[in-house]
Amino acid sequence: MRAYNFSAGPAILPEEVLKEAAAELVDYQGTGMSIMEMSHRGKEYSAIHDECIANIKELLNIPEGYSVLFMTGGASTQFPLIPMNLLGEGQTADYTDSGAWASKAIKEAKMLGNINVAADCGKEIPTRVPAVDELNLTDGAAYLHITSNETISGAQWKVFPEHECLIADMSSDILSRPLDVSKFGLIYAGSQKNLGPAGITLVIIKDELAERCPDTVPTIMRYKTHIANNSLYNTVPTFPVYMLCLVTRWLKALGGLEGMQKLNTEKAGKLYDCIDGTDFYTGTAVPEFRSNMNVTWRLANEDLEPVFIEEASKRNLKTLKGHRSVGGIRASIYNAFPEEGVDALISFMAAFEAKHS
Amino acid sequence: MRAYNFSAGPAILPEEVLKEAAAELVDYQGTGMSIMEMSHRGKEYSAIHDECIANIKELLNIPEGYSVLFMTGGASTQFPLIPMNLLGEGQTADYTDSGAWASKAIKEAKMLGNINVAADCGKEIPTRVPAVDELNLTDGAAYLHITSNETISGAQWKVFPEHECLIADMSSDILSRPLDVSKFGLIYAGSQKNLGPAGITLVIIKDELAERCPDTVPTIMRYKTHIANNSLYNTVPTFPVYMLCLVTRWLKALGGLEGMQKLNTEKAGKLYDCIDGTDFYTGTAVPEFRSNMNVTWRLANEDLEPVFIEEASKRNLKTLKGHRSVGGIRASIYNAFPEEGVDALISFMAAFEAKHS
After folding, report:
1. How many beta carbons lie within 10 A of that of residue B59, not counting itself?
2. pLDDT digits over B12-27, tens only?
3. B15-253: CATH topology
4. Which residue ranges does the record assign to the Aminotransferase class V domain (chains A, B) (predicted)?
5. Domain A256-356 annotated CATH 3.90.1150.10
6. Hey, of B16, B35, B39, B41, which one would you mutate to test binding to chain A, going by the most A CBs within 10 A of its CB?
7. What values do phi and psi take at A118, rounded to 5?
8. Which one, of B341, B232, B105, lies nearest residue A37 by Cα?
9. Separation CA B279–CA A132 (nearest Å)
10. Partners of residue B296 on adjacent β-strands
11. Residue tagged active-site, from A57, A193, A267, A321
């Protein structure tokens, strides 16, 4: 039986995608080789690489002048790469602090340049991200960095600030909703939540920004190197790109990002309604900033939380434990998480409440 | 039919390993999840992570005081990380130039510190690596860097130089032969040749070296961060580690690195004998430095090389084309390449010679 896997990442993948990958894992389309065994410059892998980029451009309606890159090292590696590439000497960059991930990005950037924290609600409970009108921006800042969705706290930007160079860590909500990419200078996302297995970092960058990078930055750490080489400067992790390609096909077949947003709003909406319908559960995030990807809540009696997690697990509702730094309950319901799993969780929550109140 | 895949990397994997991965790709051991969908901190993946490290320590007989790390970005990312972590201000590091990969490492290091090229045979034809007694070493150098096997030219170090801090890029021959790890300060290898699919970089480091790293280096770029966090500072590419774990089990079952060395010497020996037995073919590397992993040669009539490659491909002998920068023929016969594939190549070479001479 397939588990309802609420893991925050690495996370659930579409079952169809897994089955397709399994079926051709040993022999990719009659070649006598696994896709994993093929040169990253050979014709079979090249077709996948290029299709994956084309699908992402289509899904996000990415305008001319932007590149789609496959990099490595997760979002945590982008934290230093962004200032190394884009923050000139003497310049300041603005960052918003909205929680654990934003504050990690800030910490790394501070080691490399002048950073202004334009808004800080990183430690507020109930959790939230900053409102667009409370940002204290620097004139002439090199860029403004936000974290579009805080995976740990479950808060999400619903409206984005306007900025000449807006940069967003979208690790936990990329491809979950339509996006006007032209409003961004750079978007990045680790692959292991909404994209595929862990192992690549998707970067969408306005090409002209990459020219800012000083020559003192090591070749492989420059965005312009990856742009110039179509992400093939060195061996790209081919299997995660292949998996992402299958996921993009699946997304297109489901109606693209409009279709996905509708489904995600429905799934999250049901779960928040369930939480709001009783004092037994309390949502962790301020309602207007609630994430559609990571739904977080507490039990009025926190001592019951481990019991909740354990009983849920016995009913095939897996990995509901909140992040080790904050506790509580977290249901990560990314694109690939099926609606019937949300329904099963809601039924369980009602039964659990009836039993324990 | 399974192809005889001579790709230099990503490269052939053991068929048994691929079949095992395919069989449990959708449902890992009855959990209802793929291994790719599981948290990198959950119990199933943790068991694989720890077993993989233990197996590598066992296979290489790694002494106390060393850590086995899974990093990302390939060998090309290690090129800058090594001087960033280990080359103090005002210090010099020695590098040997033995070809394309060594010279890339040198180029990146020169951007970051004082580099002495202790020997340069990088452009010699027939190709080779430096002899141990021709190194022009710097007194008090921070380290000496070598490239244990040049994948493109097909030359390999058979005896290693002695140095207080010897660093080796072993991307194309790691785990192909027994090794005295205690003679090295740091060993690194991209995964896509002898280890598994592309996506992780294996690093074996003497822990005390990691302390050299200055605090100005971004957190994720410090070896000491990965040592302190058992390679789980951020999300590790879990699937490549899983595949590497299966490969290490396969290696252990085949008799470990002694067994592998015997097999590799036999495979390469046959092929070199075939090349040496006729003037129709000429080996590219100086015999005493010939690689057991990447066997390179030319045809006396170079115009016939494309014909050779094409006819071989029709006989299921795939990806024999030399690297685009040097041409010629290259047969990469890593650990997982079966002996019968070498035999098939040798038969084809004889038939091709008979037909075309």
Report:
1. 17
2. 999 999 999 999 999 9
3. Aspartate Aminotransferase; domain 2 (3.40.640)
4. 4-345
5. yes
6. B39
7. -80, -20
8. B341
9. 75
10. B330
11. A193
Q: Does B91 touch chain A (CB under 8 A)?
A: no
Selected residues 60-89 of chain B with any CB under 8 Å from a CB in chain A: 72-77, 79-80
Cβ contact, residue pair A33, B12, below 8 Å? yes
The type of residue at B344 is A
Instruction: State whether CATH 3.40.50.720 applies to domain A16-253.
Output: no
Average pLDDT estimate for A210-229:
98
Mean pLDDT (whole number) for A141-148: 98
Q: What residues in B contact A27, CB-CB < 8 Å?
A: 2
Residue with tokens 């090349």, as numbered in its chain: B275
CATH code of domain B257-356: 3.90.1150.10
- φ, ψ of residue B244 in degrees (nearest 5): -65, -35
Beta bridge partners of B349: none
Domain ranges of chain B: 15-253, 257-356
Contact by Cβ (8 Å): A299, A281: yes
Residues 6+ apart with CB under 8 A from B68: B53, B56, B57, B62, B202, B203, B204
Helix (H, G, I), strand (E, B) or coil at B312: helix
In the chain, the amino acid numbered B270 is K
